[in-house]
Amino acid sequence: MSEKFKDKSDNELVLLYKNSRNDDVEFEIIARYQRHAKKLAREQYNKFNFLYQVEYDDLYCICLSSLFNAIRSFDDESINFYSYWKTAAINEATSYVSKFTNIHKSRIDDYLNYEQGICLSGYLKEKTQNTDEDYLSSIDLENVLSNPKNKFSKTDVDVFRLYMAGYSINDIAALINSTYSKERYRIDNIRRKLANILFNQ
Length: 201
What we know:
Layout: H1 10-20, H2 23-48, H3 56-73, H4 81-98, H5 108-112, H6 114-121, H7 134-137, H8 141-146, H9 154-165, H10 169-175, H11 180-199
Helix pairs in contact: 1-2, 2-3, 2-4, 3-4, 6-9, 9-11, 10-11
């Protein structure tokens, strides 16, 4: 933090920036609030980390992004800037978290267990979305997936069951603590292998 701004309050700095658009002033505000942003991001992460998709780094970025927005929208000297920013940051973090499917870390086994998770979600029944091509609905997927000679791993079977049940690739990746690209690649490989099995039947 700069010595030349040490006697100025947060409110004064923000209003100074709005009047001057001086980059040094903005850098000073950001430097002051990095610690606040990290602390708030950690608080929000501790609050919501029971959901698989919530990441600390994302929340930290949201807190910083809300700081930039708050600097530009702040116009009431009677309001404490820190409170103004914190309220905005919490609202944005809550909005971010609310977009995720409520997949609890503590219930991972329920989602991957065939009886409790996959059957209940509608596997091999009416699907929630059209994720498969025609050839996939024309074969007994369960027998093909579980047949040892086809050499699908347990994870392959679990992932494809979830995929056919209508789960998005993002949700599947979150459930098994993986990445979208890895599970997209896995599913594409399984589909090619299923097509080859069907062709050779």
